[in-house]
Amino acid sequence: MTLQFAQQSPDALPLHVVGSDDLDSFIETLTPAHAAWVRASVFSGAIGQSLVLPGEDGAPAAALIGYGTETARARARFVLAAAVPSLPALTFALAGGVPADKLEQECLGWLLTAYRFDRYKSQAPDGAALVAPEGVDETRVEILANAEALTRTLINTPAADMGPAELEASARGLADAHGASIDVTVGDALLEQNFPMIHAVGRAAEQEPRLIEMRWGDEGPTLTLVGKGVCFDTGGLNLKPGGSMGLMKKDMGGSATVLGLAQIIMASGWKVRLRVLIPAVENNVSGNSFRPGDILTARNGLTVEINNTDAEGRLVLADALAYGAEENPDLMLTMATLTGAARVAVGPDIAPFYTDDAALAQALISAGPQMADPVWQMPFHAPYEAMIEPGIADLDNAPSGGFAGSITAALFLRRFAGDGRYAHFDIYGWTPVPQPARPKGGVQQGARALSMALPQVLGL
């Protein structure tokens, strides 16, 4: 699926964006017939409303779309997208009404309304199309929309069709499309090449665990993206209850997000040396599953006591992080659907991130609202370090007590990230209730904010 603007056309219908507070003054600009039509309708300019204005021949001549009140807009994201499904499947050209600083964001939301996960059912009919307004970077918005579509589709695909091998195939497809190189270490070769924790977590599954490594670019600063690729998480021997297992196809949302971000970077032609690392596993149950009480030795030599096999994401990320740190990149990022504690803290819409880098944090805080991609900084709270030190090993993968679960997971990962600039995102990767431009299902979080913040931080 390709999300794109419509071609410029003289047949595109004018689309007027009208706020509730501006409706009366807008009606005064209309012809008497159209003014009477609007007054006779239920159109109030509320968010989600649309109204087609007929021409003299009865065919659509223009349309209105509600922009709500300032208070309502402050509580919404992708305001125009709320009404797009109610428009007829015609081509429209914006005729004003959207503030310049919101125009690109609203156009992105419009394109995202066209996303469909249709692998297992017939495709829905095409919806309303939009001509790129003047002043909007058409290419950039399309790049962002299609990166989001990639991430959503990877997350939405069930684990039977998106295991470690299929995730590898998707990464290879992305690499081929952009001229990147790719190397994959599979199965027992993980032990031979010193990725013991990736192997331990994934060895019980039918599909062998693997580390996917993609490289692109030969100039500029070095950027390493590490994405959690747990394609399904049963919890291992600490088996999840059925209600908690139902969404575990999304446990590779971190890898899906870094692949989406990589697509943005490569399609935009950034002058960076990009490296993507994805430990792809399925945390399953069999006679050779790793066990509670086991002590594993990570790639960097730290030992980890396993107190819960359902805290497996940080284990596979640890080996990948240690591997990434060996090249001392200018910046390294992790993306992971890591903890339920993060969801309790900020809910499903906000992507919490951790970093000690003040410049990166400020750039992300600024970029989030501009990119309709809310993020929130959380602390690497040093006094909690003792909570991840069990006594008989260097680290504990699942501290007891239940407090600060997202923070302790982030502190755990930081032990493997080396001494360079580092940030960690603890994302949800899922929209539980349909929202404008965000249907229920997989969703990308943090990538758009990063796409705006990283050029500033890396000096591109």
From TrEMBL:
Domain Cytosol aminopeptidase: residue ranges: 308-315
Keyword Manganese found: yes
GO biological process: proteolysis
GO molecular function, one term: manganese ion binding
Annotated keywords: Aminopeptidase, Hydrolase, Manganese, Protease
Origin: domain of life: Bacteria
Keyword Chloroplast in annotation: no
Annotated GO CC locations: cytoplasm
Entry similarity comment: Belongs to the peptidase M17 family.
Official protein name in the record: Cytosol aminopeptidase domain-containing protein
Organism: Donghicola eburneus
